[in-house]
Write a structure and sequence with these properties.
elongated, mainly alpha
């Protein structure tokens, strides 16, 4: 069987709640990281275009690190909820 078909077969058999938590799991890091980097750029008065996020992390203050940690905890919690829902 084709590996792509197997992936879609597994996803198709997932309960609705697990699919919702899996979508949240994929969405939180993207939106949360964008928010943290936006806070950092706003605080430093920089234009966010063409910035390397790894170098930006060196300029994080305590609030930005705290938000970054919360984003990670929410990501882990949504992954755990997706596993539990299945």
């Amino acid at each position: 069987m084709d590996p792509v078909a197997q992936v879609f077969d597994v996803i198709g058999r997932m309960p609705d709640a697990q699919l919702v938590f899996m979508a949240i799991f994929m969405l939180i890091p993207v939106v949360g990281a964008k928010f943290v980097f936006h806070l950092n750029n706003k605080r430093l008065g920089r234009n966010p275009v063409s910035r390397n996020p790894f170098f930006m992390m060196a300029t994080f203050n305590a609030r930005e690190w705290l938000v970054f940690g919360v984003v990670h905890l929410l990501t882990i919690a949504s992954a755990a909820a997706a596993v539990r829902a299945g």
